[in-house]
Amino acid sequence: MDWTCDSCKKSFSSNEARWRCCSKCDFDHCTPCIKKVDYKPKHPHTLAYVSYKCSECGENSVGDRVYCPTCKVTYDACYRCVLRKITAKDATLNGSGSVKSISVNATPFASGATRDAFKVEATMEDGKKQPYVLKAFKPKFFNAGMEMDIVVKIHLKAYELALEFNKEMQLNHPIIFKRPILHTMSTTVEKDGKPVFVKGEKVALEPFIHGEYEKFSSNSGFILDGYTAPGVFTHFTWHKTQELIVCDLQGVRQIKGNEHDAYYFTDPAINSLKQNWGPTDRRRQSDGPTRDGYGAVTTVCSFVGWNDVR
Predict the structure, then answer these.
(1) What is the per-residue burial (b if ≥16 Cβ within 10 Å, else e) of 98-118?
(2) Tens of pLDDT, residues 213-252
(3) Beta strand pairing status for 175-177 and 262-266?
(4) What is the CATH number of the domain that holds 218?
(5) Would you give the DSSP letter of residue 303?
């Protein structure tokens, strides 16, 4: 059953999150209204964020969820269950089947702040071999208990927002995020007598991006001059969510004059108001997520009417 926000009077689907009176009054608020500065609901009771029951695992959850907007029955899935489903599906866009096995080069070819990247030859279910990249936490972070689930969750959120961005903006060069899959190492891999990966360790696998690699933005304010779409996308994610920005955009801009021309991104970061998107979420308490160099986003977004960066 749809519901109406008692503040802005907008209608929402029953699958969309809301704040509801804890005393079970027929009083609901949407998140944007709740988050208005100095806003206080005109209601005598406390409002609580409505929880939901995951249709996959059956557990009660609060916050982000994946839901079907067209089903007549309510279907909600927590991100952990969605990630499990992604594990069983192919992360490529060419429909060549899921990854059956991998052969890893134990020497990393690239390294970031928290993870190393390794070249992989993946054997697909149809027998074809494809170049993939395996990403694993560096020993310091792995031993500290960091889980790869949050990395895949960030990719999934960026992927979802990019689909909306491409649909609304209709740019000649859409933004595409390579979706990783969670993979559990079946054996321990060593190099020079030291383990590089251990049996049971969760890593991320994603298709290798061919082309000239560029860093288009960082998660601390840097934006590469001369490229409009990445900055507009980052601004779009804030306007769409009002609670986070997708940044640290890196990958390849493919220009071949055909239908495959696009920005292909990997390893995004999310900066958020709640600072709950992993170790690269660098939201600063003093001035929100769109800070430092993101003031420059106003310039590249002015043509779409987005001038209220804060």
Answers:
(1) ebeebebeeebeeeeebbbbb
(2) 899 988 777 788 877 788 889 989 988 888 899 999 999 9
(3) parallel
(4) 3.20.200.10
(5) G
Of residues 238, 214, 236, 240, the one with CA closest to residue 227: 214
DSSP letter assigned to residue 9:
-
pTM over 0.85: no
Amino acid at 205: L
Task: Establish if 233 belongs to a structural domain.
Answer: yes
Read off the pLDDT of residues 136-167 as tens digits, 9 standing for 90 and up: 999 888 888 888 888 888 988 999 899 888 88
Q: Is 167 exposed, middle or buried (0-12, 13-18, 19+ CB in 10 A)?
A: exposed
Contact 45, 6 (CB under 8 A): no
- 52 and 176 in a single domain? The answer is no
Total domains in the chain come to 2
DSSP letters spanning 232-288:
HHHHHHHHHHSSEEEE--EEEEE-SSSTT-EEEEES-EEEESS--S-TT---BTTTB
310 part of a folded domain: no
Domain containing residue 244: 89-304
> In a 3-state reduction of DSSP, which class is residue 80?
helix
Residue 84 in any domain: the answer is: no
Same domain, 62 and 111: no
* Residue 117 pLDDT exceeds 90: yes
* 65 and 187 both lie in a single domain: no
Assess whether 109 and 66 both reside in one domain. no
Give the Cα separation of 285 and 7 in Å (integer): 27
